[in-house]
Amino acid sequence: MKHPLPLLALVLTTAALVPRAAAISDAEAATGRTLVKQYADTIVSVEVVATLKITVADHAQPPRETKIEENGTVIMASGLTVTTLSAIDPKGQMEAMVAARGGGPKVDIGETEYKDVKLRLANNTEIPAVIVLKDPDLNLVFLAPLPDATTPLKPFPFVSLDKASTGEILSTFFLVQRAGKSFQRVPIVRPTSIVGIVEKPRKLYLMSELSPGIPVFDAAGAVLGISTPYLENGRPIRDIVLTASDVAELATQAAAIKPEDKQPAPDSDTPPPAATTPDEAPAKPAAAPAAKP
What we know:
The chain is an alpha+beta fold.
């Protein structure tokens, strides 16, 4: 008979590696349920088909086309939506891989081209959209619905960045997101807490639980900020929360750009430069923490 202890040790070791959900109070559970009802419809699916053209040693490679779906947060009644740039733009990750290679043939990576850009709403409605602004420094991208002269868009439910919150270490907050397509994109709410605060060169919140492209709220429904992966040498090292004021500053710039000006030309298979290379926000100092999270 084989000794059961090795199997038992394996089970106990595996169990120790699985994160356990922290118990929450009845009051926190009630708050979470209220917030997810209030804000679930502000979380949309950002869907794009991204194409990357790569040349290796002057030899063009077959274009790499990827269908991507990511959570996004509607931040204006017009439908202006923010999400994570690195999540929908494979160029940065590819550049990081090439840089880490440390040698070999020359690799040229073109700008990411997009088609079939759309926002999928909570009721499963698909809204054609365009990318209007990228900010590589903050790893954010803004999308706007395309106007429709025959069927004007109704105001979107949105997260007001003007109604902002601040937090202290171990303050409790709540994140709202949506599950993936396999789980019918149902809304999800989870408690999270601030475990660290980076003050300079800009404020960043480090949270106990986080997912990219979504808002984080306090118990009263005020938004702490929007989450996005923090990049180091092009690679994500940890999801962080950017303050509502930092996101609002960029949102103002994005809202001033007419989405129809970014619309691909009608009878063309190749989008024009305005559609494939959206405006980028002015460069700013990198928001690197004083120490790695």
